[in-house]
Design brief:
mainly alpha, 5 helices, 2 strands, elongated, HTH_MetalResp_TranReg, WH-like_DNA-bd_sf, Metalloregulator ArsR/SmtB family transcription factor, transcription
Length: about 110
């Protein structure tokens, strides 16, 4: 079996791509913004905040969790979600380095 396209890139490049892909949908951005706003673990309120069906919201939560942007803890029959600070630290470092590099470039 041949190598996948992601095999040609570093683990860090793949990690950044996975995180950015997860943020590539406005519903997921809205979920992140809501979790930041409430600043606590949320169990069922996310569905009430978005104009989407519960199953759709669950799928978006799954994508965010798989990318490491949020954490989910089981509490009774519900899963409570909160921001995973580590992933945002990775993004902060990555984009800070880009901003600094672009700022110093002597380009057209």
């Amino acid at each position: 079996m041949g190598a996948t396209k992601t095999d040609h890139f570093t683990d860090h490049q793949n990690q950044i791509a996975i995180i950015c892909k997860a943020l590539g949908h406005p519903a997921r951005v809205a979920i992140i913004e809501y979790l930041l706003k409430v600043d606590t673990c949320i169990c069922g309120d996310i569905v009430n905040e978005l104009p989407l069906a519960q199953a759709t919201v669950s799928q978006h939560l799954k994508e965010l969790k798989n990318a490491g942007l949020i954490k989910g803890n089981i509490e009774g029959t519900a899963i409570c979600y909160c921001i995973d600070k580590d992933a945002f630290g990775i993004l902060k470092e990555y984009f800070s380095n880009i901003v600094l590099s672009v700022k110093d470039q002597k380009c057209c």
